[in-house]
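Internal tracking record. Fields below are filled automatically when a chain is submitted to the structure queue. Please do not edit lines marked as system-generated. If the sequence contains nonstandard residues, flag them in the REMARKS field before resubmitting.
Queue: standard
Priority: normal
Entity type: single polypeptide chain
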Amino acid sequence: MIPRYAGLGPRNLPGLRAPTSLCRPILTPRHRPVWVLSLRAWESTTTGEGKSGHIDAAPNESILWIDNLFPLKLSGLLKAPWKSPDQDLSELMKRFENSTLGILDPINMVKRAIPSTAPVKVTEILPRLKDGGAFVKFTYPANVPVKEIEDKVSKYLQEKPVRPFFSPLRGVQAGLVQGIPWLEDLHRFPKDQLRVEFVPKNPGEEAVELSQETLYSLFRRYGKIAEISSQPWDSKALPKYAYVDFANVRDAIMARNCLHGFVVPEDLGGGKLGTRLRMSYEQRTKPHRIWDWISNHPRIVIPVIVALLTGLTVVIFDPIRSFFVKAYVTQKFHLSNSKAFRWLRKQTSDILRFRREKADQAGLNAVWTHRKDLIDQIQKWLMETAQTFIVVQGPRGSGKKELVLEQALQDRTNVLVIDCKPVVEARGESATIKQMAAAVGYRPIFSYANSLSSMADLAVQSTTGVKAGFSETLESQIQKILQTTAAALTEIGVDSRKKTDSDIVLPIDAYLEAHPEKRPVVVIDNFLHKGDTNAVVYDKIAEWAATLVQNNIAHVIFLTNDSSYSKSLSKSLPDRVLRQAALGDLSPDVAKRFILSHISSDEAQQTDAAEKKTAENGEKQLQLVIHPDLTELDECIDTLGGRLTDLEAFARRLKAGQNPKEAVAEITEQSASEILKMFLLPGKTTSDGEHKWSMEQAWYLVKSLADKESLRYNEVLLHNTFLQSLTAPDGESALEGLTNAELITVKSNNGRPGVITVGKPVYQAVFQMLARDPVLAAKMDLAVLTELAKIEAKNIDKAEAELALLGTLPKQPAQMSGRITYLLTKVDTAQKKIDAFEKEMGALKKVLLSQS
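SYSTEM-GENERATED OUTPUT FOLLOWS
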């Protein structure tokens, strides 16, 4: 008996339970296949006799594999988890048996596949739903070679093909089973790749690895072979194996079922003892050539992907962002520009009247009248075609922004105001980008994406060694925002252009050059605010502004407090002369008119309110109108100066009922408190990373300017407090920092720093008040003298160190006598200064101990 492995297949097929259902009259002059089947055989085909997986084969008995009887898709039914495969197949075959499929019956196709002239006697049919076919066991005469039976069946199927309904192109095929098939019921389903393992015929023997030529001669008869892959030469895996890839899954099924367990004899290359073939289906690894190339060339692919993403972003988001910038500049969707809002405001103008608009505007009218020439000059510059900047410079509180926006540009539309202060003071790159985008109406903005892109770029660079370019620097992000804004401003300038215009043929830049009134106006406020912080922002804005004026896209007006603005702007427009307008403090006469306008406007408001209340009540009532005491107003204005913000605060105090001296005294005290807090408290030095001056330097200027109205710039720099300071060694940087903080003002003389004055006119009185405070003066002078004493002590240490070095010489040359005398004189002078400092320090300490 030859044991054979039984396979998973249906236990019942149509017509197999009653032999008579299969015994149709098939006329043949020679032989008639005899079908002897039993129900027991069908019910044991799942796992074989005794469920061992073997099939008994008698002498002169062999097996044919009949392929293409069932669709391969039905193999998925074997995965059903709620029933066993036996039950599923039994129910399926009952439906086949009770139906009248006729020629579509799989068993009918088996009968039609075996010619009537074949000398065979079918004893058992083992269907294999998973493989889409069936094993047909048959007996044959001893004098007939089994190979002849296989050839006769194959030739018959070629002449009279049997085609199932689900495969009209590929007919039923048959092959002789030469090995011992393993018909398992595992969830392993047919694939077009076979793993062929070479195992010994008997345990303990040796097997031979077959060559690709031998494998080709054995497997080619079953179908087209796509590839044969041998085991790698350096592989230690046992048993040895090879992969045979078929072009069709049906061919792989035929080869496996016919050759599994086949022993290759010595004459075919199987070695002296023979080599058994053991086969299994393998999932072929599909070649992903495109993905493999992409993953293997990151230095090429990643920049290409970044370029594609950037281009996609430009195509999708840039038009949207340009639209939002245009809407922000033109205020097209602003509520105040709607007809309904204007109508409502007109109807309620008498009810909702703002006091500030009356009082403040009345006071400012006096200022604008005084500066009418400057306003007219700016408006004339805006009508010219000169490709340069307009710079309005003045200290904080001088009314630069109000003069430009409310007066010079009051009849202008399409005005873009960019405030540099929130952009520069933003913490972190994401916040800076967000503030820059908000200043021009640039949206949508993904400020957080820059951090994510930086992390992705770092990860790619650490793994591939090449920078991906996902992340963008702050400079590139700002440049992208400004470029989109420039494009939007260009569109705004030509929006009013009509096809009927005579100059329609002109290019855009030529049209805007010929029509300067059509160009938008860009106002850059707080330029060089904290000039040493985020310098890249100022540089990019200046370069962008130069592009706007050179291409005739827009007029650009800079508003700055820094008197050294020309250094920064000249880099962007080196061949242009800047149009400059300087705003100073108001003269005493204009300041007085400003105060009186405020007060008279407030009195008029009180009178109107009284008359309105009288009209409502029907009777006249006594209304108390506050008239401030204006005596000594001229003296107080001389003390206060002409700074606009200080004058407004002074006017508000007068309207509140204070007399001028009380108001000036409170303003002076408040300013003194601010100076103490900002400049004269310990710790306000370079050590905090924010200030460039020392407390001693600030006090030296306060005390000196309290006695004099101005100081020479170089004279201050040569004082030891600035020349040899221990905490702020750079004197010029200290003066620059104090100027930016508005403690002092540096006035130029022929383009160079020449004179130092107080930061605001009221500071002259503030400095005098601080200098007259004996306790504060003693404390600050003590700090200055202490630092000067330390400086002299440091000089003594340097001189003594050099003297000690000279003293180590074995012989004193005559040429060294002058140097030694110089060092000794320096030590003596420094010591005398220290003695004088300590004497003064002693007197100051007595003041601190005796007064509070």
